Predict the structure.
Amino acid sequence: MSRPFASVRARATLAATLVVAVALVAAGTAVLLSLRSNLLGEAGTQAERSAREVATGLAFAKPYDDLPLDVDDRPVQVVDEEGRLVAASEDLERISGTGVDAVKPQPAATARDGGDDDDDDAADDDDHGESLEPGEIGARTTVSDGSATIDGDTEDYRFAAVPVETEDRGRLTVYAGAPLSAEHGAVNTALTVMLIGFPVLLAVVAWVTWLVTRRALRPVEGIRREMAAITASEDLARRVPVPDTHDEVARLASTTNETLTALESSVERQRRFVADASHELRSPIASLRTQLEVAAAHPELLDLDGAVEDTVRLQRLAADLLLLARLDAGERPADARVDLAALAREAAEGRRGVRVRAEEDVTVAGSRGQLERVLANLLDNAQRHARSAVEVSARRDEGPHGAGGGGQTAVVAVADDGEGVPAADRERIFERFVRLDAARSRDDGGAGLGLAIARDVALRHGGTLTVRDTPAGGALFELRLPGA
């Protein structure tokens, strides 16, 4: 089941918007809580200031009528230690949150008869157990939240309770309230601003993120379109545009172009290989077909030796092509121990004019069959170009091997006394189907694959195969492999 398409731009925009939304909600919540806490603290301070102002008048034995009970239309109650309301704001109609619900001062007898246990408990709680001298105001203040109705207007208040010890009236408790309307208004205003502003801000963040990601990903889209065009046209010579940003996208484009270059080179080598292989196969097949057709019409003219020779050429060429295909496929060589000295003697056995000088136990790890093929190809090439003699040597060398590591190295050298290889052609001869003397090589049965196979096998075994001149002027091929 295919998954729905979601662009990187859409995912980046959504992620950025969600992150900003979470941050805004967290910050907004913190701001609202801090604002509410500060405003509640300010209301508590105002309520305490009003309560202490009334308590100061009581401490100086002012009569109840002279107390500032109606300042700024704030609710004020004065309660004695038995819970009786002895003074209150003039227009107070209802109150809650102070522990004393009475709003009108009552005579002492009535208060004793009608007072309830809850009011007594509240008064007992409000004095906090402080021991006060006559005329002294308590240092501790109790804060509570409630509501009150004054002259028909009901609001929420924060109440402060302050105890005071008087000389003639005993312990009294003053309750004064400060309105919370400013706190509610400020919090509601801030909340409204946030509810309106946050979506607008999120929309701006999403829009900006969408534009920024579109601009940042525009080169990627160009790379994608060009790669799609290359795939459709199969034109590996084309390259994707590289932006001038010197960032990850530019490096991606450069790497993509390098990959296309390597792919183009690989495909071109494959095409040349197929073309050259077809050309090399065509000659022996055509020759063999001609001989068979002649033999079918005139059996007495059958060139059996020529047919066998052409068949052998086809067999060798097919084996070479198969080995190259396996090497190109990245087949790992075996990890057997192979004595190159013994292998050199076996390869030289029965060959005219070939002399072997080899140390004992020149051992490497690898494929015996492939290394035997390397030596056979080098000897075939040397005999093809030598005037009279070929010399093979195998030895151990303490220097670094071709893979760049240290340790013991096995060296096999094949030298001939021919004309040597020109310096300009010393790398070209290892290319496939390359023959410096094409006519002579074809007559001798060579297809220009022997040295290419030898170089590939050497590389697969972690070694090198190079050519240089001998002191006498002939060619010296040197195979260096890491010792086992």
